[in-house]
Amino acid sequence: MSKSMNSSTGPVSRTFCGLPVSALDWNAALAHAEELALAKGHPKTIAFLDDAQLLGALLGFSRGKILKRHMFLPVGGAFQHILMKFFHRRPAFDARFSPDSFIPALLTYFAEPCRVGLIGDDKSRTELLCTHFARHTPWHDFVAIPSDANLSGRLDLVIVDATDPHVYEHIVGGLRGADIGLVVLAGRGLRRFSKTPPVSSGLQSSVSKPSFA
Question: Given CA atoms 166, 35, 90, 186 in this order, what sign does their dihedral have?
Answer without folding.
Answer: negative
